[in-house]
Amino acid sequence: MSEHAEQVALFDVLAMHPECKWIHAVPNGFYSTPAQKAKMGYEGLRKGVWDIFVPYPRGKYHGMYVEMKYGKNKLTAEQVEFGAFVEAQGYKTFVAYGWFEAYTAIMDYLGLVPIMEG
């Protein structure tokens, strides 16, 4: 698998939960031409912003950010900085190495019962 395939699998299973309708991806890690990257930067795309946003407040948190990683990939310096920033703003953060890890973290955060097993 790849990080892309893991994230697709995650959104496939999240689609089975109507309560997860507004969870969405942030297209920061896409490959494109330099011109397209510049255009997206002008539109507000920022390096380091995490892959997935869960826009549901729970408990002391305003929402949740999930960063998908695959294999031996680690957070970049910008991703570490972004994670620390959003945590300080009251958001939960989670780094997931695979769709099931992300899925169970999101289900736990939302207080939902998982319907899939990894």
Describe the overall structure:
With 118 residues, this protein is α+β, with helices and mostly antiparallel strands. It has a single domain, classed as Trna Endonuclease, Chain: A, domain 1 (3-Layer(aba) Sandwich), CATH 3.40.1350. It is 38% helix and 13% strand. The protein has four helices and four strands. A four-stranded mixed beta sheet has the order 1-2-3-4, sandwiched between helices. Helix 1 (3-14) runs parallel beside helix 4.
| Alpha-beta classification | alpha+beta
User: Which CATH architecture is right?
Assistant: 3-Layer(aba) Sandwich
Widest sheet: strand order? 1-2-3-4
Poorly predicted runs are: none
Total individual domains: 1
Largest sheet: 4 strands, mixed
CATH class: Alpha Beta
- Count the E strands: 4
CATH topology: Trna Endonuclease, Chain: A, domain 1
Radius of gyration over C-alpha positions, nearest whole angstrom: 14 Å
Order of helices and strands: HEHEEHEH
Q: Can you count the helices?
A: 4
* Shape type: globular
Fraction in helix: 25-40%
The portion of residues forming beta strands comes to 5-15%
Distance between the termini: 14 Å
Write a brief caption for the model.
The chain is an alpha+beta fold.
Task: Give a topology summary.
Layout: H1 3-14, E1 24-25, H2 34-42, E2 52-54, E3 64-68, H3 77-88, E4 92-96, H4 99-110
Parallel strand pairs: 3-4
Antiparallel strand pairs: 1-2, 2-3
